[in-house]
Amino acid sequence: MPPAVVLVTGVSRWLGGALAGELAADPSIERVIGVDTVPPGPEMLRRLGRTEFVRADIRSPLIGKVVSAASVDTVVHMNISSTPGGSGGRTSMKELNVIGTMQLLAACQRAPSVRRFVLKSTSAVYGASPRDPAVFTEAMQARRVPGGGFAKDSLDVEGYVRAYSRRRPDVDVAVLRFTNFIGPRIDSLLTGFLRMPVVPTALGFDARVQLLHEDDAVAVLVRATTGDFAGTVNVGAEGTVLLSQAIRRLGRVALPLPTQAMGPLGKLTRRAGITDYSPEQMRFLNFGRVVDTTRLRHEFGYSPRFTTAAALADYGRTVAPVVAPELVSGLTANAARAVGRLASVLDDVGRTTRPTPSGTHLQAVRDA
Amino acid sequence: MPEARVIRLHPDGPEEPVEPTVPGRGWDASVAGGLEFLRRRLTGDYDTDEFGFDPDLTDHLLLPVLRPLFERWFRVETVGLENVPDVGGALIVANHSGTVPMDALMTTVALHDEHPAARRFRLLGADLVFQVPFIGAMARKLGATLACNEDAERLLTEGELVGVFPEGFKGVGKPFSERYTLQRFGRGGFVTAALRTGVPIVPCAIVGAEEIYPMIGNAKTAARVLGLPYFPITPTFPLLGPLGAVPLPSKWFIAFGAPIETASYGPGAAEDPMLVFNLTDQVRENIQQSLYQLLLKRRSVFS
């Protein structure tokens, strides 16, 4: 049975807006209600279609009124901020993430109409440390529990959602643990990071990075909203790249810095508004993280269309390379040609200076 | 929604070196090959797997660097390669020694260069390895991953040849006086991994690695300060400085013993601690026996 009334939080951001737009385009869904603290931009408004926008803070009890008045049956919670810059500092980020989720869940617990809850979570809940297994399945837990920031918030949020699921066993809860998003349009941690011409990386470390294309992210969210999957699932594309490899493929220049220098640099770039990364994201850049997507493909029933490499290449179309691959291949081809010429010149020199004895041998054979 | 497609990184530019890399053409072919390698590295045009294994780098840089050590310096002789299967997963369990885990690297070369199926050796390393900058990243590129049951079982199910040194740091960092005596074999985690995946265990004895850096002392305070499990003092290190880092050219043997099959026990057997202990002991005894046999065969340490 498709949902009748869907509530999407965090609708003013790219992914939330894209999901609401897709749902609004589905005629079998009666109403799509989008909630966010800031109104969507003009381009986003066009995408949203018939989505009704409610400007509300999920931290306020107003959200409860929205849920009960519209008799919402499916809630998609995407209003979890990954960077302190976007939500006005770490304190308000934590408040939005944790208190906002608690408020929303309180509203959903009271509303008898709710029968499905979808949480956009993250694979950051697995942490990132040298003690990690290479690939995380849904059954595994962080070896080193993330100490703060987005990962810690996400762990807390997942905890509250599990508690809600225990209190309302009639509600199907789907928790989607996404890997890092990438794509031409989405604004994610990595898209901002890799757009810099010179990308700072941790000296002596090379993270394994698993990505998810924005189109696949939207498709998975739509399927989670309209389908009947309940449980936790990792969402990521097939294959991985190393961070150094991703930087090279995009034609960026890597700037390896000692890990001690990364913190101050992060503060500096955050203040300058270039990019925004926190210590726990730095740890991710040291060690990386890969998740197992067997459950996604078999139980959830979706195979991402883009592999990690293809998603990266699609994103690469929108960033002009600093070091063009054509330049590199041109240079190496020229060098190879020069070496070939040199080799043939040397061959010729060798042939003229010492006449080959093969002629006499042939002569002997012919005579015989 | 656009179809998934592979977007080429260099759609029309000249991409192949004009000179074809004819094998045996000589120095210019190898220079051209090197340039092509350089192009791939600079543009990220190579594949890596989820463990961080980089076959391109391993084949074209790391193995060629290790090969002279294998062939000329240690003159490694491999015995019993027929005990290592050509296809499918197997767990190779070996003794660990030598202050620096050179034995792991030489076994990697042995299985790639001397085994008829040129097998990749996927090593399991302690978490300390992956904490250390450069070494951790390089270990992953060489195909190593963290020694934990999740990773071991994933690699074995994928049909990889997995290598484990159950002695760990107790083995590499043991004093020279205890050479060729096996230390405790961990908690038998490697046996449970083999039982769960039903792959054979191939015992492997390595002779020669003990003498490359004879550890005559252990500077425990320095080790504690640096956060290392041990800080070696050898006859040449740290006395001769960087020169002390040159390993002694001992003669090496790497012997693979008859595989111990585990499939017949069934995956549930991993829950039986007594069986796990027995198998662990069996593997340990087996390696210790072949170590003694190889030592008898070796005429002297350096020949």
Give your account of this protein's structure:
The complex is a heterodimer of chains A (368) and B (303). Chain A is an alpha/beta fold and 368 residues long. Chain A is 46% helix and 17% strand. Chain A has helices spanning 14-24, 42-48, 62-69, 90-110, 149-167, 189-195, 214-226, 243-249, 259-272, 279-287, 294-300, 308-316, 325-353, 358-367, and strands spanning 5-9, 31-36, 52-55, 74-77, 116-122, 135-136, 172-178, 180-182, 198-202, 208-209, 211-213, 231-235, 241-242, 253-257, 288-291. In chain A, α3 packs parallel to α4. Chain A starts with a strand and ends with a helix. The relative contact order of chain A is 0.12. Residues 359-368 of chain A have low confidence and may be disordered. With 303 residues, chain B is of the alpha/beta class. Chain B has helices at residues 27-43, 55-73, 102-113, 127-131, 135-141, 149-157, 169-172, 189-197, 220-226, 273-297, and strands at residues 77-79, 90-94, 121-125, 145-146, 161-164, 201-207, 217-218, 232-233, 253-256. A 7-stranded mixed β-sheet of chain B has the order 1-9-6-2-5-3-4, sandwiched between helices. Chain B has a two-stranded antiparallel sheet with strand order 7-8. In chain B, α2 crosses α3. The chains are: A alpha/beta (368), B alpha/beta (303). Chains A and B meet through β13, α8, α12 and α13 of A and α1, α4, α5, β4 and α6 of B.
